[in-house]
Specification:
By secondary structure, the protein is α+β, with helices and mostly antiparallel strands. It is built from six helices and five strands; from the N terminus they run H-H-H-H-E-E-E-E-H-E-H. It folds into two domains: 87 residues, Orthogonal Bundle (Arc Repressor Mutant, subunit A); 59 residues, Ferric-uptake regulator, C-terminal dimerisarion domain (Dna Ligase, domain 1), CATH 3.30.1490. 45% of the residues lie in helices and 13% in strands. The chain has a three-stranded mixed sheet with strand order 4-3-5, with no helix packed on it. Strands 1-2 form a two-stranded antiparallel sheet. It is found in: Cytoplasm.
Length: 146
């Protein structure tokens, strides 16, 4: 078990959340996944190992993880939430053709947040910046079709 998973399990235990085998499997899957999976994708991946687990169980556990600050829910225009266990400050670029989401590291935009506060009077608690385009795989597929 990775140290990230162990740390997350300790954090859950400290907040009084009981660790079940399903919870541990969902959390481990998320921590090891680089694909920003949906609840359905998590369910389909874990269902062979946990045949009695329902999609509702996955959703409920993801909600627990989000509330505990271990997982970030990414909501986009298509209505399908995706989940990210990397809680560091980073951004995402999404392929408009296949839906792949890739992490993109960039220095925090705190200067822009301060500027927004000065111009609007708001107290900014965070921001979301998203990039959209076509991933290399989809570009290769479309160029081979022509």
């Amino acid at each position: 078990m990775s140290s990230r998973v162990e740390h997350a399990l300790q954090k859950l235990k400290a907040t009084g959340i009981r660790m079940t085998p399903q919870r541990q499997a969902i959390l481990t899957f998320l921590m090891e996944s680089m694909t920003h999976p949906s609840a359905d994708e998590i369910y389909r991946s874990l269902e062979p190992k946990f045949p009695n687990m329902s999609v509702a169980t996955v959703y409920n556990n993801l909600k627990v993880f989000v509330e505990a600050g271990l997982v970030r829910e990414l909501t986009y225009g298509d209505g399908a939430s995706r989940f990210d266990a990397d809680m560091s400050d980073h951004y995402h670029v999404t392929c408009e053709q296949c839906g792949t989401i890739v992490d993109f590291e960039h220095s925090p935009l705190s200067d822009i947040e301060r500027e927004v506060e000065q111009h609007t009077g708001f107290v900014v608690k965070g921001h979301r910046m998203e990039f959209y385009g076509t991933c290399p795989d989809c570009m290769a597929k479309s160029s081979s079709v022509h």
